[in-house]
Specification:
This protein is mainly α and 66 residues long. It is built from 3 helices and no strands.
Length: 66
């Protein structure tokens, strides 16, 4: 595949809409780079997605703080 064609393919992938699962939404936050790296490693060790863990942590936080 030529360089120009590859760049076009990459550009198409980057602009494709995300498939958000039913009943879910997206949350964007800024965190320290090292915190994200450590969190990703810890989630991977437990075979869990970061989203799964964040969702559970937020549910627990809401129980205490609502």
């Amino acid at each position: 595949m030529g360089g120009d064609a590859r760049i076009r393919d990459i550009a198409q992938v980057e602009t494709m809409p995300k498939k958000i699962p039913e009943g879910m939404t997206e949350l964007s936050v800024y965190i320290e780079k090292q915190v994200k790296t450590d969190f990703k490693v810890a989630c991977t060790k437990q075979n869990k997605s970061m989203g799964e863990v964040v969702n559970q942590l937020l549910k627990e936080w809401l129980k205490v703080n609502e």
